[in-house]
Backbone:
């Protein structure tokens, strides 16, 4: 349908609404390049003259806050999403192709995991991790991420697998291929769009995760980039230059990632919402 | 589409067919050990077992710094429903959830209808609205605090407009909860826009055009054609918003710490961790966590059931 009367009305309204919506994002962008005291005095003004002080100050801190948290975040996120993709694709395939009653029970238990708030399980998690000797370690955080986010992976993969005819796998089996071979050579390559959704969504979620790394890594044992931001508002109450620089640099990788892979984001999100 | 569960079923795989013989027992065990077991093991260790442990603790007075742990039966649960702090957190969480289920849903639908056109402008604006979804809640919380603080951006603007005593958006106990609701709504708005836009693009143009020829105005067309066909989008948005709002924690931890005053913004999720990990009353906090889990499961289940029923198929 076309806008018959007042064709200029729609773009103007759309732009005005977006401008209001954008204020918080604008705040991040201008304040990164402003001197610390000006951030509180005139939060909305343009940075004139712009300064890179905040960013260079952060990058050269003696306590290495930025680089240490960045490498922790990269390590935890990468390891978690690789493990999650492999384990949830295999589990998803197993459950989608199994005809046992137990597979349906397992599926139900996994799907209910989609809505479990982390607060419900964090207290016992600290005990489980302590028993395994993994409390306050990055490995412990990675393992927790795998357990907590595996329902999402399984959900995406089983949904996708329903559209892949089982005949392909049967043909390969008749040719004498083993189950592992069939999975890695025939099935997994076909799952590529689902793999993309899983990697993208879990990557962003785990990167941005706050309470889980805060509790599991503990107060003294290093931080991820997100918990680093949180700690920096407590410690340096006045120094908003550092806080904004940290927020900017923490967001930049996800933002670039998002701008390049937008289509996949939208596809992954709306798969269930559209017909066809 | 990537994760469509309902429509992409291919007949061959939709009916696994009893004619296919089941593989022998040993082979099934082997494929379970290789493919099913690793994922299920991690899930059991880090989700299922912790829930069971939580339930176990909820029947005790467990406090790691105040042994011994005794079995107290359902005492914790009985206490919860007379504990004004818990009842307040239940009220706070409910108010927040109701607002956050409604506001981004309604505003998101409006913006989706506004942006449902082709062209670079609308594509760019779609990108803009989705951006908060990839920001960390911590970042969102800090930026909004800079805006809503007593001396923040909003109040500076209000003073410039001649308002002598602008409201304390985050410091007034009557307002803080609503400010938090606005912040979370802003963050979730883009999600709703994207889901509704996808829904709108699935509405066949011919239907609206035929109705227009029959003399239906834009409002009538929306009510009778578009809106019923958006039912699946409404379902997804409502359930996601419900779960997200009900478990809100990060914003409270970063912005208000449950205050101002006593517990004016302390949600259940916040209360659970305060009681369990700060006050170390883990038995009691576990009972809270279990109640929270039950409420969220029932609320999501009922909502899904109601909304699924009104979905129509073309």
Residues:
């Amino acid at each position: 349908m076309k806008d018959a009367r007042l064709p200029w009305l729609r773009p103007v309204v759309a732009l005005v609404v977006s401008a209001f919506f954008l204020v918080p994002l604008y705040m991040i962008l201008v304040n990164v390049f402003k001197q610390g005291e000006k951030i509180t005095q005139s939060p909305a003004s343009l940075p004139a003259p712009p300064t890179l002080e905040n960013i260079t100050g952060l990058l050269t801190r003696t306590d290495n806050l930025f680089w240490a948290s960045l490498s922790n975040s990269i390590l935890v996120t990468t390891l978690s999403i690789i493990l999650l993709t492999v384990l949830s694709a295999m589990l998803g395939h197993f459950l989608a192709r199994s005809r046992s009653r137990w597979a349906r029970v397992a599926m139900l238990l996994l799907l209910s995991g989609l809505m479990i708030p982390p607060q419900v399980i964090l207290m016992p998690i600290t005990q489980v991790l302590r028993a395994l000797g993994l409390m306050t370690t990055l490995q412990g955080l990675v393992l927790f991420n795998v357990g907590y986010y595996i329902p999402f992976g399984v959900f995406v993969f089983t949904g996708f697998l329903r559209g892949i005819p089982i005949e392909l796998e049967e043909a390969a089996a008749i040719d004498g291929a083993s189950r592992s071979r069939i999975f890695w050579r025939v099935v997994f390559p076909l799952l590529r769009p689902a793999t993309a959704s899983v990697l993208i969504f879990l990557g962003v979620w785990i990167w941005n995760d706050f309470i889980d790394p805060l509790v599991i890594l503990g107060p003294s044992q290093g931080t991820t980039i997100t918990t680093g931001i949180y700690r920096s508002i407590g410690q340096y109450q006045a120094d908003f230059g550092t806080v904004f620089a940290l927020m900017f640099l923490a967001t930049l990788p996800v933002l670039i990632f998002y701008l390049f892979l937008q289509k996949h984001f939208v596809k992954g999100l709306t798969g269930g919402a559209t017909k066809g | 589409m990537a994760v469509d569960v309902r429509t992409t079923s291919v007949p061959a795989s939709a009916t696994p067919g009893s004619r296919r013989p089941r593989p022998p027992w040993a082979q099934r065990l082997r494929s379970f050990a290789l493919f099913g077991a690793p994922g299920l093991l991690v899930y059991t260790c880090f989700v299922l077992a912790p829930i069971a442990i939580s339930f176990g603790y909820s029947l005790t007075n467990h406090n790691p710094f105040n042994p011994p742990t005794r079995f107290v039966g359902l005492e914790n649960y009985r206490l919860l429903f007379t504990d004004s702090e818990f009842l307040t957190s239940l009220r706070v969480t409910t108010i927040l959830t109701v607002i956050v289920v409604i506001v981004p849903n309604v505003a998101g639908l409006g913006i989706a209808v506004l942006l449902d056109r082709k062209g670079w402008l609308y594509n760019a604006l779609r990108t803009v609205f989705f951006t908060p979804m990839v920001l960390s809640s911590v970042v969102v919380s800090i930026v909004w605090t800079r805006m809503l603080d007593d001396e923040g951006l909003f109040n500076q603007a209000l003073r410039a407009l001649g308002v002598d005593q602008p409201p304390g958006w985050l410091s007034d106990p009557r307002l803080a909860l609503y400010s938090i609701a606005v912040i979370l709504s802003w963050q979730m708005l883009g999600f709703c826009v994207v889901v509704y836009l996808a829904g709108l693009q699935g509405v066949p143009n011919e239907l609206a055009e035929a109705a227009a020829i029959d003399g239906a105005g834009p409002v009538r067309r929306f009510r009778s054609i578009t809106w019923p066909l958006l039912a699946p989008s409404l379902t997804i948005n409502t359930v996601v918003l419900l779960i997200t709002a009900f478990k809100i924690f990060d914003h409270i931890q970063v912005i208000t710490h449950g205050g101002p005053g006593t517990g004016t913004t302390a949600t259940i999720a916040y209360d659970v961790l305060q009681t369990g990990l700060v006050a170390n009353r883990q038995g009691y906090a576990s009972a809270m966590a279990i109640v929270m889990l039950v409420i969220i499961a029932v609320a999501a289940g009922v909502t899904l059931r109601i909304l699924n029923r009104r979905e129509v198929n073309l």
In short: Chain A touches chain B through 111 residues (CB under 8 Å).
